[in-house]
Specification:
The complex is a heterotrimer of chains A (278), B (345) and C (347). Chain A has 278 residues and is of the alpha/beta class. Chain A has 9 helices and 12 strands. Classes of the chains: A alpha/beta (278), B mainly alpha (345), C mainly alpha (347).
């Protein structure tokens, strides 16, 4: 069973070289929920996620996990609580699914530790949860995009962390695989209580799957809250520079963003204020 | 929590892979021992096992004591040591930089050690210990230089490899120059520093290399799991709790040390570092740590190549020429195999 | 709708250079070449007075000094010609592979030519200098194909990194083979050094004469490929869309480069880094248009190699440093500088 952990960022400033990408940002990740971060390209959302998982050191400010600075914690201890699936993970040639998922046990093993039943059980449970058990002997190279992504999630699961951060887990996947992955992450959150934080580029998927939605613009938080609160026409315009109309998604009841461009816009679709039933 | 059938399959799969790897490592070790024994016994004169064992145990056996004890034994020991060192160091670099072509003999480390050794011996006429010291200092300086030059917002493997190639070219030309200026132009001696040779090796050369292996190999072995994690990419490895920069530096220092000591004694035996890792990977599979298998493959390669170079042809070829010649067919093999399997390098 | 100038030449300095500026640079480079050539004749491992230089140029070779100068004339000529060939070949290779790090040395082409010649001499009793050139060209062609194939394996095709690695590995393998071939042969081991690292010492008018026709052919082929290389720089698909026959263009340009490399190596041994440094320097003067870049590369290559030879003769008086070593010592830092400047994605 997972215990709830609080992950926060305080006055976080991040950058590369002399570029500042995230400017004095404060953020709290609600424990036990699915949080989605959205924003335009190069707004700093990936940078933010990388910093929260310690891949990038802050210029100023700090990231705290249960009050402890993430960048001062021993690496393996952090890896047992917080897992990250980066944007383009590299699978070594010829590695099997079983081996790759097994790598997830790294933070639980020292130099002299042998594999134990606990490790096997964690791997088996991860395979089951992602429904990749039948793929165990296959090499990762020969899997489809959706299967591969599930295998990477299985590896992160084998780490048995209470928090899972994912950087654009659905990019490059086709529609059915995107839904597959997002449903899986929701299962994990509902059944195991894993806190999920992910960066998504698709606003509508974000609105549908998020319990807590954060919109980033130019390195700071523009809006944060429930999807209904955050996804307004004003926010879309400010954050994405896009005129839009928000209606209620007939499938999920969540807000649905319809972009308004220059062509194929019916005359009566005036960009007027429309109520969203939330 | 997981279903018993899945758990069983996982355990069984893991155990199966692990035992296969162990078996192959064992077979390789046996082959190395056999090759070692053969090089001690066979040659221009054949000495039976009894004599050889006698010499090893320190007895005085007429004839064998000199040939086996003073000539063949140090040669064979250095062959195994150098092969093991190059194999382990090579696979470390190839794994860390995620590219089988990125081995230390291609990216300048070996070139640095051999340039230093050539200068030390040919120009400065230093003794063996001093040569080793100079070689290791040079190799470390080269590694540091390459690392520093490749550093811009963090080190990127691509840049590191390319800069290594550039530095290697510079160092090779320096070595060529130094050798051309040598008082006595002896081609055989020159090839020692150009491609590696075990001719005329004595205990004075073999012992430092062996000592380095004994000290540094465990350092690499303890980092074995971290090394495997690095194959998944810096980000994923970091997410799994690996301290990436620290691990990389430790690995580089240990690997460079191994190469420097081995090169100071035997020259930059061409392609051993380059070939051992991929050959070991073919045998053992992509799952576990390749350090020990690559070391064993390296040792075997050097033993066999040296023996072949000495006795298979009319001319005595130094070991480096034999292994160097293997490089081109290996590249061809890579092409053929990859095209057939449609896989990636 | 603009037609002719929809060819926007790619990234880097897309500064519109008027032809006047380029001509000016070309003139300056030619002047530099003349200056370096004179320097090469006047200066060397043996100090010589100007009076002797003039008289030697006039044909006198009575005194030791005059004889030394007389020997330098063909040497200078060879350096100029080989330098031009290598600079031009480098420019073409960089255009064909779209790789800023391409160079006949790095890609193992020169070593392959070397190996071919050594094999010919050792096993087939090859003696005619023209024969050397043909064999060297064959070796250069085969290694170019080999390296390109190895470098194209796997994801991403022939990236600069993979080509450089394939070239380095192949070069090392070929160098070992050269050693293997030469080692048992006492008759040819004297010239062993020449086939491992190039030099222009021991040049003669005869040798230059044998190589010149081949260099001429290579020059023509390369210069004729210039316009097509401009299209190729935009990417294979775009070039095809603009009407270029991509495979044919590539093959022709590659043949031109191979001829130049083969002939150059046959005459002077494997000399690296000229083909790398020169095109980069020339891009600053001439821009990215190959119709200017290639001629510039030829002239600048001549300047560079001749200057390198002069340096090699001065630095280690009274002995010499082979020009192949000097170019490596100058060229490698430049290579590293180029790598550092490039964005990683471009590699």
């Amino acid at each position: 069973m997972t215990t709830s952990h609080t992950l926060t960022a305080e006055a976080l400033t991040l950058g590369y070289g002399d570029r500042v990408v995230v400017d004095s940002l404060d953020l709290t990740v609600p424990p036990g929920k699915v949080t989605v971060i959205v924003g335009a390209n190069a707004c700093g959302k990936s940078t933010l996620l990388r910093s929260m998982s310690r891949l990038l050191a802050p210029r100023e400010g700090r990231v705290l996990l249960d009050g402890r600075r993430v960048h001062r914690m021993p690496a393996k201890e952090l890896a047992r609580t917080l897992g990250l699936l980066p944007q383009s993970p590299i699978a070594p040639e010829g590695i099997t699914v079983l081996d790759l998922v097994g790598r997830g046990r790294h933070p639980h093993q020292g130099v002299l530790t042998r594999w134990s039943e606990k490790d096997d059980a964690a791997v088996a449970s991860a395979l089951e949860a992602t429904q990749t058990a039948e793929l165990a002997d296959r090499t990762v190279d020969e899997l489809s995009g959706g299967q591969r992504q599930r295998v990477w999630i299985a590896m992160a699961l084998a780490q048995q962390t209470d928090l899972l951060l994912l950087d654009e887990p659905t990019t490059f996947l086709d529609a059915s695989h995107q839904i597959e992955v997002l449903d899986l992450l929701t299962d994990l959150n509902r059944t195991r209580g894993t806190t999920v934080v992910m960066v998504l580029h698709d606003l509508n998927l974000a609105a549908r799957y998020a319990d807590h939605l954060i919109a980033i613009a130019a390195g700071s938080i523009h809006a944060a809250g429930s999807p209904a609160e955050v996804l307004t026409e004003g926010t879309v315009e400010t954050v994405f520079g896009l005129r839009s109309r928000i209606i209620e998604d007939p499938v999920s009841g969540r807000p649905l963003m319809l972009p308004i461009g220059r062509h194929h816009v019916r005359a009566e679709t005036a960009p007027a204020a429309v109520e969203v039933r939330g | 929590m997981p279903r018993p059938s899945v758990l069983q399959e996982v355990t069984r799969g893991r155990v199966r892979n692990a035992s296969r790897r162990r078996l192959i490592a064992l077979v390789l070790a046996v082959l190395v021992i056999v090759a070692f024994a053969v090089t001690l016994m066979a040659g221009q004169t054949f000495y039976p096992p009894r004599d050889v064992i006698g010499v090893v145990l320190g007895e005085q056996v007429p004839g064998a004591s000199f040939t086996v004890g003073r000539l063949r034994l140090p040669r064979a020991v250095l062959a195994v040591t150098a092969g093991f060192s190059f194999g382990m160091a090579g696979v470390t670099f190839q794994t860390m930089l995620r590219n089988p072509l990125a081995s230390p003999d291609v990216i300048g480390i070996s070139a640095g050690a051999s340039a230093a050794a050539a200068i030390a011996i040919v120009t400065l006429s230093l003794d063996e210990t001093q040569v080793s010291v100079l070689a290791i200092v040079a190799a470390l300086v080269v590694a540091l230089l390459v690392y520093t030059l490749a550093f811009r917002d963090g080190v990127v493997g691509t840049r590191l490899i390319l800069i290594g190639i550039g530095i290697s070219a510079m160092l090779d030309s320096i070595t060529s120059y130094v050798l051309s200026r040598a008082a006595e132009w002896d081609l055989q001696e020159a090839t020692r520093w150009l491609t590696g040779s075990l001719n005329g090796v004595s205990w004075d050369q073999a012992v430092p290399a062996l000592a380095a292996l004994v000290v540094l190999a465990p350092v690499l072995l303890t980092q074995g799991r971290n090394l495997s994690a690095l194959r998944l990419g810096d980000d994923t490895a970091s997410a799994l709790g690996v301290r990436v920069e620290r691990t990389r530096i430790t690995l580089i220092l240990a690997a460079v040390g191994l190469i420097a000591f081995a090169t100071a004694a035997a020259g930059p035996i061409a392609f051993v570092a380059f070939l051992s890792g991929p050959i070991a990977a073919r045998l053992v599979g992509a799952g576990g740590s390749l350090l020990v298998p690559a070391g064993l493959v390296g040792a075997l390669l050097v033993l066999v190549a040296d023996f072949t170079g000495q006795f298979a042809f009319d001319t005595r070829y130094p070991v480096g020429v034999v292994t160097g010649v293997l490089g081109a067919p290996y590249l061809v093999y890579l092409i053929v195999r990859t095209h057939r399997a449609g896989g990636s390098i | 709708m603009t037609t002719a100038d929809t060819r926007h030449l790619p990234d880097a300095a897309v500064v519109r250079r008027p032809a006047r500026v380029r001509l000016l640079w070309l003139l300056l480079t030619l002047l530099a070449l003349a200056a370096v050539a004179v320097l090469s004749v006047a200066v060397g491992s043996r100090t010589v007075a100007w009076a002797d230089v003039w008289s030697a140029l006039g044909g006198a070779d009575g005194t030791l000094e005059q004889a030394a100068v007389t020997k330098r004339i063909p040497r200078t000529l060879l350096a100029v010609v080989i330098g031009a060939a290598l600079g031009l070949a480098g420019g073409v290779m960089q255009g064909v592979t779209r790789n800023p790090l391409a160079d006949p040395g790095i890609l193992g082409v020169n070593m392959g030519a070397s190996l071919a010649v050594v094999t010919g001499v050792a096993f087939f009793g090859l003696t005619s200098p023209t024969g050397y050139v043909w064999v060297a060209m064959a070796g250069a062609a085969l290694s170019a194909v080999f390296v390109y194939t190895v470098g194209s394996l796997g994801r991403g095709g022939a990236t600069p990194l993979k080509l450089a690695l394939a070239g380095a590995a192949t070069s090392a393998a070929f160098a070992s083979l050269v050693t293997a071939v030469v080692l048992p042969r006492n008759d040819i081991s004297g010239s062993f050094r020449l086939w491992q690292i190039g030099g222009v010492g021991g040049a003669s008018y005869e040798r230059i004469g044998h190589v010149l026709p081949f260099l001429g052919v290579g020059l023509v082929i390369c210069l004729l490929s210039a316009r097509a290389l401009n299209s190729l720089a935009l990417g294979d698909e775009v070039a095809a869309g603009l009407g270029e026959r991509v495979a044919l263009v590539r093959a022709t340009a590659a043949v031109g480069a191979v001829v130049l490399c083969g002939a150059a190596t046959a005459a002077a041994g494997p000399i690296g880094f000229v083909g790398l440094v020169v095109p980069h320097a020339c891009r600053l003067m001439a821009g990215v248009d190959h119709r200017w870049l290639l001629p510039f590369s030829a002239v600048t290559g001549a300047v560079l190699l001749t200057a390198a030879d002069v340096v090699g003769r001065i630095v280690a008086r009274p002995s010499e440093v082979d020009v192949g070593i000097v170019t490596a010592l100058i060229g490698a830092p430049f290579f590293i500088y180029t790598v550092r400047r490039q964005k990683v994605r471009a590699l």
